[in-house]
């Protein structure tokens, strides 16, 4: 009896460990950096606030984010990712402050610049009320510079002068000289597990785990098993991840990881005007990923230069950002949108990529035009299951035109669409031998552009405007 009970317990335990990671297939995530988004109410502190300095605090807060939720929802996003909101160390390092949230002093409190825990609870409640999910950034690798914990509990940290002896500098040595937590220490593991529980209990639906390349996989495996058991979605940030890295992270237990390889390929092909074969090469590797529907797609984020910045000309950058939006919304995976990309905001590397968000009453007509294209692309994706949750099958194109043309078919819930990206600098017509369907009258682009597709006598005929992506329904 006792043995049977024990066995039943063990079986339940192993079923828990093997439970699959929650899926956010079909979601559209909008990323905000609260300090750079919107300020509302009376600030609790103005220490180190200086809007003229990109390395200082700018005063955006949780009240402001809550106030702007209708903007995010009306744009079409279904989830909000907040960069960390922890109480930050108060010092500066190389002139910078902890406005970005990645320099924690206290993992279980909100920095007064952002507001209070009650403000966070209000935000979560408002997001849920608007039918949106909340994805919170979690730091598990380090504390901020000079955090009190380094004095109070020195045994929790890897020693910078001996870390190399542990055999994996990426994991055991500090990044940017930040106090590096030793996750092989039981107390540290329990502390980090409890941090996740703390925020989960406040209603958070998912975690974006920062800098996971720099923490032991044995720790991550246990952390993720707990998240899965609690049905918490997990998104891993492994800088420069490609298909094989994403697959190994999903096997470790993550729901998803960011596809840096697709982001780089889209930047070079679309924004810099190089060959589309870079994008094709990334898509050809999707078969390596266990769960390709979960891959996090992005044009840019707070750690890389703005997508629009890869062209020196603002008008060109805006037009190519429109292409980027239509292209991103045609891909398989979960789109993640960095605040401001919907108006083609510019900015180089950190911190120039973190300029203050600007809202509709501050936009130029040209920015509004980018926004309209982005919003339409998001709406079209959401309205068409083939785009939102479908599989993706690349179609062959002759090598003579593969720099300029990418074609794939997506299908879900009985709907089938053809997606075509044209990277040529002028309007083009293409005729491809193809057996997708026998006959089809002329079909127009779902994004509303002057683009056409037809089938006749075993050929697919496409007429596409310059530098854009178009989507055509086959049924
Ligand atoms: Ca580390």
TrEMBL record:
Example GO BP: oligosaccharide catabolic process
Instruction: Tell me the protein family, please.
Output: Belongs to the glycosyl hydrolase 13 family.
Which residue range or ranges hold the Glycosyl hydrolase family 13 catalytic domain? 31-381
Query: Which segment of the chain is annotated as a signal peptide?
Result: 1-17
SUPFAM superfamilies attached here? (Trans)glycosidases, Glycosyl hydrolase domain
- Can you name one GO molecular function term for this protein? calcium ion binding
Enumerate the InterPro entries for this protein.
A-amylase-like, Alpha_amylase, GH, GH13_cat_dom, Glyco_hydro_b
Q: Which reaction does it catalyse?
A: Endohydrolysis of (1->4)-alpha-D-glucosidic linkages in polysaccharides containing three or more (1->4)-alpha-linked D-glucose units
This one is known as Alpha-amylase
**EC top class, in one word?**
hydrolase
- Give the organism, scientific name: Deinococcus yavapaiensis KR-236
Necessary cofactors: Ca(2+)
Organism taxonomic ancestry: Bacteria, Thermotogati, Deinococcota, Deinococci, Deinococcales
Q: Which SMART domains match?
A: Aamy (SM00642)
- Which keywords, in A-to-Z order, does the entry hold? Calcium, Carbohydrate metabolism, Glycosidase, Hydrolase, Metal-binding, Signal
Q: What is its EC number?
A: 3.2.1.1
């Amino acid at each position: 009896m006792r043995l049977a009970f024990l066995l039943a317990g063990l079986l339940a335990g192993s079923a828990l460990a093997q439970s699959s990671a929650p899926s956010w297939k079909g979601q559209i995530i909008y990323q905000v950096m609260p300090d750079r988004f919107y300020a509302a109410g009376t600030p609790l502190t103005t220490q180190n606030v200086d809007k003229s300095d990109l390395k200082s605090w700018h005063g955006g807060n949780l009240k402001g984010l809550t106030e702007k939720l209708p903007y995010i929802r009306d744009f079409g996003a279904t989830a909000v990712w907040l960069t960390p909101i922890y109480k930050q160390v108060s010092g500066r390092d190389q002139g910078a402050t902890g406005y970005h949230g990645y320099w924690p002093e206290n993992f279980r409190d909100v920095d007064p610049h952002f507001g209070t825990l009650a403000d966070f609870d209000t935000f979560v409640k408002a997001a849920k009320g608007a039918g949106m999910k909340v994805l919170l950034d979690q730091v598990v690798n380090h504390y901020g510079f000079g955090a009190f914990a380094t004095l109070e509990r020195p045994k929790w940290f890897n020693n910078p002068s001996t870390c190399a002896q542990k055999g994996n500098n990426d994991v055991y040595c500090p990044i940017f000289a930040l106090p590096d937590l030793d996750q092989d220490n039981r107390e540290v593991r329990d502390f980090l597990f409890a941090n996740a529980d703390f925020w989960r209990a406040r209603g958070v639906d998912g975690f974006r785990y920062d800098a996971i390349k720099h923490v032991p996989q044995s720790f991550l495996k246990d952390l993720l098993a707990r998240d899965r058991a609690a049905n918490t979605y997990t998104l891993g940030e492994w800088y420069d991840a490609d298909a094989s890295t994403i697959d190994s992270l999903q096997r470790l237990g993550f729901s998803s990881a960011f596809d840096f390889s697709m982001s780089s390929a889209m930047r070079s092909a679309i924004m810099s005007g190089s060959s589309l074969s870079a994008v094709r090469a990334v898509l050809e590797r999707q078969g390596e990923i266990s769960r390709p529907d979960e891959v996090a797609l992005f044009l840019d984020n707070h750690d890389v230069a703005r997508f629009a910045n890869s062209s020196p000309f603002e008008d060109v950058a805006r037009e190519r950002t429109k292409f980027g939006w239509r292209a991103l919304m045609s891909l398989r995976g979960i789109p993640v949108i960095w605040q401001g990309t919907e108006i083609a905001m510019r900015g180089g590397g950190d911190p120039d990529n973190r300029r203050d968000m600007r809202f509709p009453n501050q936009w130029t007509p040209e920015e509004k035009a980018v926004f309209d294209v982005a919003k339409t692309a998001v709406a079209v994706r959401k309205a068409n299951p083939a785009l939102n949750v479908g599989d993706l099958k690349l179609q062959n194109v002759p090598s003579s035109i593969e720099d300029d043309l990418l074609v794939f078919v997506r299908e879900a819930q009985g709907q089938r669409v053809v997606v075509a990206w044209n990277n040529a600098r002028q309007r083009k017509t293409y005729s491809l031998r193809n057996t997708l369907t026998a006959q089809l009258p002329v079909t127009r682009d779902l994004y509303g552009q002057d683009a056409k597709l037809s089938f006749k006598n075993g050929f697919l005929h496409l007429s596409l405007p310059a530098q854009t992506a178009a989507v055509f329904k086959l049924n």
